[in-house]
Structure formats: structure tokens, C-alpha cells
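Crash report, auto-generated. Payload:
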Amino acid sequence: MKRENILLGHGSGGKLSHDLIDKLFMKYFDNEILASQGDSSILEVGSQTLSFTTDSFVVSPIFFPNGNIGNLAIAGTVNDLAVSGAKPLYLSAGFILEEGFSLSELEIIVKTMAEDAKKAGVKIVTGDTKVVERGHADKIFINTSGIGILAENRKGISSGEDIRVGDKIIINGAVGDHGMAVMAARNELKINSEIKSDCAPLNGLIDVAFEVTDKIKFMRDATRGGLSSVLTELFERKSFGVEIMEEAVPVHDNVSGMCELLGFDPFQVANEGKVVMVVDADAAEDVVAAMQKHKYGKEAAIIGEITGTHAGKGWIITSIGGKRVIDMLSGEQLPRIC
Amino acid sequence: MKRENILLGHGSGGKLSHDLIDKLFMKYFDNEILASQGDSSILEVGSQTLSFTTDSFVVSPIFFPNGNIGNLAIAGTVNDLAVSGAKPLYLSAGFILEEGFSLSELEIIVKTMAEDAKKAGVKIVTGDTKVVERGHADKIFINTSGIGILAENRKGISSGEDIRVGDKIIINGAVGDHGMAVMAARNELKINSEIKSDCAPLNGLIDVAFEVTDKIKFMRDATRGGLSSVLTELFERKSFGVEIMEEAVPVHDNVSGMCELLGFDPFQVANEGKVVMVVDADAAEDVVAAMQKHKYGKEAAIIGEITGTHAGKGWIITSIGGKRVIDMLSGEQLPRIC
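Recovered output after restart:
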């Protein structure tokens, strides 16, 4: 390890995060399951195939337009399970609370979690609470881990092993809303943007897509690091490339405006209710049409495709026909976005 | 909720923790699995019975005699699974790091976790890392969640449904070491006590006990809140009582000395390598003998029994024949002990 201390960028979901995973966690925790590096791990337990995932939530502020840390804690883990192809079943909830944190705010968060778990059809079955002295945490951190069950015909999704040239890339709606909503909610900015977090559990939407076709070959939720990180994970070290049509990617006007103002790339801003899918070209339009009928997929669109050229690389084709490279965030622009 | 803010005692594993669980988490997260309130939840997933648990670790200091937060993160979760009767298989690891935390210390902790996972026969299969700004966490917090598989003949252990009057209560060794070792390691105390944490994964020891008998009816690891909390959970709201012979409970001299000095009850001090078992009277001596041959059970002993009198209550019989009530810690004596 060249750097001697942890930087905010190590938690960005971008290059520094990937470095830390490769050079430290993979080095010591090395095993074939972890090595697959999906957002969930796929486990054979007796005769069942399970999906297992964990996520800690440290968002600041803990309340933001259209959500709070409790919504994230459910959606984040449900989505990690759902994009692995699993049916999410059970969640754990681990709370780290700062001494002096408001019990009424805790109650709102816990209530939110219970409601969202119910909506997503999962049960919170085990938990833990730790309290640290005032000034040694920031109000509340939540870890949720989750277990889902994987159907036989969805086992290849996590690895994307069936992806072929010509497959279409789909997203279920606009990018950047969550990151910019949280950013705007930070006191120091006092921006009245009306941007709302897109935070949502996506398992229902994903089920709708699978009702249309079983030719969904890869899914990933675009959280920290945004669409760019997901696409990079998709093409990195692969024998294919990725081409994205910039104009096809939905971005709300207020989000693109705020990104421009603050110098962010909306493709690199976190989402909490967006899934990127790779789908067989024959089925892509049907999947988009089905998603558009679902409340979390109204703006679903085909945004690009898998190409046989520039293997291991991704390009964004701009509206004037130019090209730019798809790249992961290298530092940290938005600490504690989830 | 009467109190308006979170107190350190809400994380003690004692009365305030139980209040928070009953009045907030159980109220909203209510379901039949969570309601069983074991350290692990027992899940029917397809044809498998799984055990699932979560624990966050916030110990301070992160390095202490005979261990670090990494040892706790593995042992704590492995033990929660093992005492539910399950064979621990897979762990997740979620890190919350403070900006500026030393990468070399992180490497030591991660290496410790890898080594202990290997010793315990479990794999770390999924993870997550978040970084918060300097001053918004304290170096490192770790959450581990775990999945184990439960054999048909061990399903009743978690609930203790087979406990009968006359059953013996066993512990695998001395109480209070972990709590006092961490306490002594705190800079402000500068106590050179030579007390070492008992932190250890107990699944191997528990397997040894099951090789002797299948008449083990209840197990619980005595962590936060110590032996007293486990015993209280054992007899509370039950049709039987508990009687403990004070002299039979192993307590190391340096631990009892330090407890006396600081005003602690060693029965209420945290352990990280102690399991309390309820075993059929016929099998109890054999279990103790087998445990004593294992490195984590050298001081194993029968410490008391299940009684038909004083249902729902526990008594400690002192060396002079007196009785005192077994009671849970009501406040918080030792914050951030695990």
C-alpha cells in the first residue's frame, strides 16, 4: 500500500475503493466466492443457492428530500440482492448510535425501515445495537446484510458470463438524483433544488422485467460512483466493449443544472433506485416497455450496447458525434452519499 | 419511549438495551422470527434451516492484550452462530473507517480477520467499506454478519424449549477477562494487569461437546452484560428458575482483583470466548470433561442448575450459603467493550 492513511476517496466506490479492495481485502480474505466481486456473493448452501450481501450506511444528512438513512438501508441491500438475480428474503440490521442521538429521530428511521421492508417483501430477522460516546460517531450508522434465494435460471447474472456483442444496455430511469438531493440537503449549501432522491427497492421492477424475458444477462445497481462505475465494472478486463449514447441516458434538468454548477458529471453521481441491465437485443424493447409501466421504471430507456470493438473499454457517444472515455471517479466528490 | 436521547447504556447489553429492543425494534420490525430473540435468527430457506446473525464492533481501544477488533469481529459472529446450534459457514464484513485511519493498522486488523476466519472454518464472502470524515467515527467500526447451517437435531437449542428442572448449567471457563483486559488497555487507566482477553471462536469447542452428547438444550455466549445477562435471558419469563453456586464460577484472581478495585461485578463483565450451556444432568460431567481437553475449555465447570422453585428468577448461592438475585446490568459500566 503506497498511501499511509485512509482517505475519503477510499469510500467513493471509485478507483481508490477498488484499489483498497484489490490490494488489501482480496489479498487477505482471498477465496473463490469473494473473488467474483459481485455486489452480492453467491453461495451453495446444501441444496440451495443463496445470495448474501452487506452494506453500511453513513449518509449525511440522515434526512434528505424523499428519504432518510432508513430508506437507504433497506433499498441498498434489497437492490444488491435483486441485481444478483435473487429473491430478497431476510435482512439483518446493525445500528451504531452516537450517545445523545434523538430517540424520536431513531423511531422515524426504524419505522421507515419497517415500512420499506414490508413493501419489498423482506423480513428484518436479526439485529444489533451499539452506542459510542458523543463525538465518536455521527448520529447513526446502519449496516444491513441480506439473504436471498437464487433461481436456477438466474445463476449466470452476477458474473455476466452470457453477455454477447450486440446486447443492449438498459437503465430504468434518470441518473444523479440521489447524489444531488443529498448534496442540496447539506446545510452549508442551502440549495433549494427540488431534486428528490430516487431511493427505492427495485426487486419488484426486476421481477417485471423477468416476466418479459429470461434473456437478462447482467444487472447492477448504480449507487456510489454512479452509472460510470457500473459500466466500468461491466467492461473492465472483458473481451467486449461498451458504447453509450449520451442523449439516451435520462438526466433530469435540475440535476444536470446542479451538476454543471458544482462541476459534477451526472454519470458519476450516486443513485439509489437505478438498475443497469444488459439484455439480449431481441428482448430489450419489450423489457423497456414493461419497465415503463412500473412506478420505478417510467423513464426506462435503452442507453447503449455491447460492442466487439475496443474490448475492455467504454465510450460515450456525445450528441455531436464525439466520443469520450467512460471512467471511474478517481477521488471522492461526494463523501457520505449513502 | 420515555427517554428522549440515546444513552451509552442503550448499548450495554443490559436493561436499557433490552428496553430499546422491546419498545422500538420489536414494535416496528415485528415478525415471528425476530420475536424469538436469540442471538441468531433461525430461517427456513427452501429445504435448509439456516442461522443468520449480525454484530457491529466498536471496541476502544482497537488493540488490547491478546487481540484486536478484528479478532472480535470474527469470534463474535462465529460464536453467535455456533451457540444457535449452527455450523458457521459464511461471513460478511462491513467497514466504517475514519478519514486518516492508519492503513497499516487496517492491514493488521484485516490479516487478523483472515487468520481467525480460517481457524474457525468460515469464509468472508462479501464486504463493504465506507469512509467518514475525520472526527465523525473513531478509527474503525466493523460489522460482521454470518450464515450457518443448522442440523435437524439442534433446532431446539436456540429457544431452549427442552430445558427441564435438574439440568446442569456449564461454562467453559473464567468470566470477566475480556472486559477487564480492554478496560486496563485504556490509556487513561494505565493499569498493568496482565489480564488477557479470552476472545476466541467457540465452534470447535461446541462440536467437541456435541460429540459427547446430544442432550445440550441451550447455549448462549456471554458477551456484553456478561454471565448475568445470559442467565437472565435464560430464566426470564420461564416456568423454571436458575441457581448458580458462586464458588463454582471460575474467575481469575487478577480479574476479581481489578473488579473489586473498580467496583465491577465479574458476572456482569463482558467475555468474548465463553459459552453458557444447559445440559441434561446425566451428560453434564462428560461434557465438562471433554471441554477441559480443548484449548478453549480448560477451566470448564458445572456452575449451577435449573430449579423448579422461584420460576422466572435466578439466585447466586454465595460461599457462606447466602443468596443474591441474578440481575442484569441496568446502566453502562463499560462502554465500547466490543
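Post-recovery validation: Chain B has a mean pLDDT of 93.
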